[in-house]
Amino acid sequence: MNEISDEQWQAFDTQGYVRLGKIGPAEMVQAMRQRIDEIMLGEANLDYDRMLMQLDSNDGAYDSAGEQTRGHKGRTLNYRKIQLLERDPVFLAYMQLPIFAEAAKRFYGDEPVAAFRAMFMNKPAGQGTVLPLHQDRWRALDRDPKLTIYTALDAANEENGCVEIIPGTQHTLLNPDHPSGFLAKDMAQEYESHPDLFPLILEAGEVVLLNPWTLHGSGTNRSNLPRRAFSVCLMDAGTMSMRYKRLASRSVIFGEGAM
Ligand SMILES: O=C(O)CCC(=O)C(=O)O
How far is the CA of 24 from the centre of ligand 1 (A)? Predict the structure, then answer.
């Protein structure tokens, strides 16, 4: 039996997102929280040289976040972003839950599905970097990923920099000239005061399915606890990177050739 109802998919189609609630076992969410801290602290048995890791900014400004490059950058919980988490067994097990296979099937049928960006997003306690409103698109890909699975590892609210979205913005690319979906300055100002912009307040463990084109962003963390999240973009495993002239991701997580 399907775990995601027709009504939920209808909401996804019209609003560009749908809340699934706390669908993963609490122990798995706790295991991811523990694991990501171990990864940041350099304690995980992982090939760090293959992981993309970026330190948080010191001043909250998007442009002053650290470089996003491969490898560990010091024993600290002040990372902003860590990618390629499908290489970690704790995160891979979560990504492969049957409900996510069901969600992937709606978009990709029985074709193999790859993780494009299995990403930890962090707003460290009392820090964090503003993420300006944007749509997730990558001009270098020959086709667009159709689904993002976003899981709050900690409760997220306005104080700690939860994601904010504008429902219904997923139908059109607002700034097609930008290679990764960020808005031009005047557009950004307009959308920042849009009446439909609202904070996606989530409990720890809550999952939201997002259309990658739904306009979203997030602020800084004014609380004394971290606001951690795990976000995975799923795409047709045949998607090519036109920049590198090869498959955009070899991390097949559903279907033939899955990890
Ligand atoms: O967690 C955040 O602050 C932003 C996440 C995001 O941009 C994404 O999942 O695509």
Answer: 19
